[in-house]
Structures are given as C-alpha cells and as structure tokens.
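Exercise: predict the fold of this chain.
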Amino acid sequence: SSMEVVLHYRPHQRDLIKLQKFAEAALKEFPIRQLPRFAPWFPNELNRLPLKPKKQAPVISCEEVEELKQLSTSSECVTGSPDYDCTKNLLEFHSSMKHGPTLVQAQAAHRPLNLDYQGEPPPNGKQKLQRSWSVSLPSAKLKEKIQPLSQELQNNLERLKLHAFCRAKWTIEQSLCKNQNLEDVWIKLNRLIKQNELPSCNATIQRSVGQIWIFCDILYCEYVRNILREKLSLTDKMNLLVHKYGIIFSL
C-alpha cells in the first residue's frame, strides 16, 4: 500500500536533505513499551493475611454455655410482659391522687401576665415578673391604612442604599411621655401590639437605661410613629435609627 505525503515548509527552509529526514522521522511508528506484569505491594494470599489480631478470640467452655442458657430462660423480660404498664409508678395516674391542686398550680404557672398590673405587691410577698418584650402578629387589615413613605425618607433611603424592609428602631424616653410613667406607656404599647395595630413591630423595655425600643420595618415606620403619637400621647420628635447607619430620619 502506498501513502502520499504532503510536506509544507517555509520559503527559507528549502534544504531537501533536512526536509526528507524530517518527513521520515514524522512517519516512524511510535515505540510501544511493554508494561511489566502487575505485582501487588501487599500479600494477597488468603491464607496469609497481613493483619492479625494481637490476641486470640476468647474460648467459652461447654459448661459456661449451659449456665448462660439457664440464666436467659430463668430471667423475665420486662418489656415482653403482657401486663406491663408504663404508668404504674407515676403518681399522677393513681386513682387516689387528687388532681385539683396540681391543675390549679399548672394554670397559675402558665397564666399570661396581666398588663393592667400596677405594681402592688401580691399577698404572698413574692414579686410578680414583669414583661420585658412584646411581638406583633401579621395583620392584613392594616395594608389599606399604610401610606407611601414621605419624600424625605425616600431620599434618605436612596442616599444610604437601604431597602424599605430593613429594620429600624424608634426610641421612647421619659422626656417624651409628658406626665406618664414609662411603665404606663409600656403597658399601653403592649396593648397596641397585642391588638395588631403596629405592623411588623417588636418592642422591648430597657429599664436599666430608662428607654423603650420599638423595632419595625422602614416601610411602616412613619405609620408606626403616627400611631405612637396618637395612642401614647408622645411629645417632641423621635429619631429613627438603623444599625450601623445611626439616625436616618426624625419625625
């Protein structure tokens, strides 16, 4: 069989002897290296395992096997007993147990805190726990009342590149409460949040610094501020703070 070979070369490389040698070298077959037989690097005979236990397996005598059989047949399995009752040792399931005091104590432990509590000490001398936070539930009825944000606040959001759903904080101090006590304002605020009048809000009272913090989405911050002014009778301006940005708006 014949083969036609076309050799392309540059004009300045016209040495026929070099071109012929170059073509012959290109047509030579590639050398094939004979691969050696695979030899594993670990012993693979089944009768000669490379890993062996350091100690032999324990040997049990026939007498010990018989003793174990007798112990297993004589012992009773508690879980397999047909009359097993998991409530046998629980006092609250006994017929002689009176459920009245237990239920009353459980109801008292889980009874919600009365927001109308004015701070009078209870007769038993123990001080009642005071609520320190409150969270609102979502309400679809408020969407109709929410007005678009003011132009000033929109400009601030564009300048700071903040989204309308970022969380912001209103702060109520004693100076804004007129003749009211901060605890009284906190009780009223809890009622507003419980009645879902403040959308996306959660609030906390910081008694150590004498402040009430109200967190809400910026989208509803102006509406929340107007409700606070109306329902809580707050005076003066309040500053709206965003984490890492400081005060972004005053109303």
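Check your answer against the key: Confidence is low (pLDDT under 50) at residues 76-84, 97-121.
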